[in-house]
Amino acid sequence: MILLYVRWYLRYRLSSRNLRELMEERGLNICPSTIYRWVQHYGPEIQKKNY
User: How many domains does the chain have?
Assistant: First the structure.
């Protein structure tokens, strides 16, 4: 799930707030700073694979 949300964040330029709302619809309550840390950690690998 984490990688899916990071991919959405990078590909569709969704804000942390948008992602948080999507997660809340699925029963997850995640802090925007956590999303930011995920993007910092997993984002470079995802971008490397897509280019």
Answer: 1
